[in-house]
Design a protein that fits this description.
alpha/beta, seven-stranded mixed beta sheet, five-stranded mixed beta sheet, 15 helices, globular
Length: 452
């Protein structure tokens, strides 16, 4: 990870870490960099944004930077991260930018940059942008006269993405009662129209964004609202998205949560049974539950692990040609249809499995038994120093030895926040709590914790 860019772009509190000036410089460098790739024509950059109030400010700053470097900017307006990825890879753009802090609170924001194939941009380009922001690269020239870039309305691109989603399921959703939690974010303008076009009777909550209510007590990180809504209204299933709709968590007809691991299992099994899962392989991160691996193995599937971050899952899938991968948090990639996690697409694939197999979601996901898992975060001043502290490492080693083959402990740095994440899986919640708390106690006793 760099100074500004983490595992999911440049993220921070708007006007504190992520300022309009820095966004302008990101645009300046990207416009210049892609302009050098074809000097006889303007670079073409697509921009989308979520519903945060600061997204409009950052969009303006990015546009100013890009056009002043000679790039033409195509504005998708409020849309999802996967829609930007789709448009970039199908419409011949040099790159795409999504303004969003995903599941973070409204006062945070982020700049996610995608290369021409719709995947996240190469680390070396992020490094050059950081160097330019910090004045380590000589000032780049402004475009003059007819070389100045243009800002162009491209809401049609978002509409093409919506049309594309509608073509993916091969069965009608008629007769199904489906709940959608749009997190007051990007999916508010897309998800309902897709499900209704496919025939579902759709019930939507948290689809009235006001600039400050994105992810607030709703969406994939606050699933309780959807759980109650599904059971109260006798729905067949519910799907909750995060702020930019690149992740999805489901709820079955009984109100039980179907997380990313369960979704990978049930969709993996369905794809395998229909001959669509290459090598019967599912790509996961190291954070997936032990229960997923046991369920995959019991049903004739295999798995490979990557570091935490959907970009690492995507890289593995594209390199080795695998069809399905993702994270427990609900970033799921179906490489036949997309090169990035797509929450709405994920919900369509779950629906396809339910309808084709004529089974309720509870039965499809219930074959996987989840190991108890406890994850706690500790806010620290220096993530690397905390993780590498000798006493913290000794506490982790002691927990590993004690858990043996019946569990595991994982301590890692957050890629987007100043947090150390401590996760334990074991036979009981009590054992998980015991070893998570033992490591956190050492972090605190070493004076590594800070308070917000």
């Amino acid at each position: 990870m760099g100074k500004y860019f983490g595992t999911d772009g440049f993220r921070g509190e708007a006007n504190v870490t992520l300022t309009a000036e820095k966004a302008f410089k990101v645009g300046r460098y990207l416009g210049y960099y892609y302009g050098t790739k074809h000097p006889d024509s303007a670079a073409q950059i697509a921009i989308g944004k979520d519903t945060r109030r600061s997204s409009y400010m950052l969009e303006d700053a990015l546009c100013a930077g890009l056009t002043s470097s000679g790039a033409d900017v195509y504005l998708l307006h409020v849309t999802t991260t996967p829609s930007v990825s789709y448009v970039v890879r199908t419409e011949g753009f040099d790159c795409g930018i999504m303004i969003s802090a995903s599941h973070n609170p409204f006062y945070d924001n982020g700049i996610k940059i995608m290369r021409a194939n719709g995947q996240k941009i190469e680390p070396e380009i992020e490094e050059r942008i950081e160097a330019y922001i910090d004045g380590k690269i000589s000032e780049i020239p402004y475009a003059l006269r007819e070389k100045l870039g243009r800002s162009i309305d491209f809401s049609a691109g978002r509409n093409r993405y919506i049309g594309y989603l509608m073509t993916i399921p091969t069965r009608s959703f008629k007769g199904k009662r489906i709940g959608l939690d749009c997190a007051n974010g990007s999916s508010s303008s897309i998800a309902k129209s897709v499900f209704e076009a496919l025939g579902a009777k759709t019930f939507v909550i948290n689809n009235s964004p006001d600039g400050t209510n994105i992810n607030r007590g709703c969406g994939s990180t606050h699933i309780e609202a959807l759980r109650n809504y599904v059971t109260d209204n006798a729905l067949d299933a519910g799907f909750a998205y995060d702020g930019d709709a690149d992740r999805c968590i489901a709820v079955d007809e009984k109100g039980e949560v179907v997380d990313g691991d369960h979704i990978m299992f049930l969709c993996g099994k369905y794809l395998m049974e229909t001959g669509q899962l290459r090598d019967n392989m599912v790509v996961t991160t190291i954070m997936s539950n032990m229960g997923l691996y046991k369920a995959l193995e019991a049903n004739g599937m295999k798995s490979v692990q990557t570091n935490v971050g959907d970009k690492y899952v995507a890289e593995c899938m594209m390199r080795d040609g695998y069809d399905l991968g993702g994270e427990q948090s609900g970033h799921i990639i179906f490489s036949k249809y997309a090169t990035t996690g797509d929450g709405i697409l994920t919900s369509l694939m779950v629906m396809q499995a339910m309808i084709d197999k004529k089974l309720p979601l509870s039965m499809l996901s219930g074959e996987m038994k989840t190991y108890p898992q406890v994850l706690k975060n500790v806010r620290v001043a220096d993530k690397q120093a905390a993780r590498e502290n000798p006493k913290v490492k000794a506490a982790v080693a002691a927990a590993t030895d004690a858990l043996g083959k019946d569990g595991r402990i994982l301590v890692r740095e957050s890629g987007t926040e100043p947090l150390i994440r401590v996760m334990v899986e074991a036979k009981t919640n009590e054992i998980c709590e015991q070893y998570v708390d033992s490591v956190i106690a050492v972090i605190k006793s070493e004076g590594l914790e800070v308070h917000a």
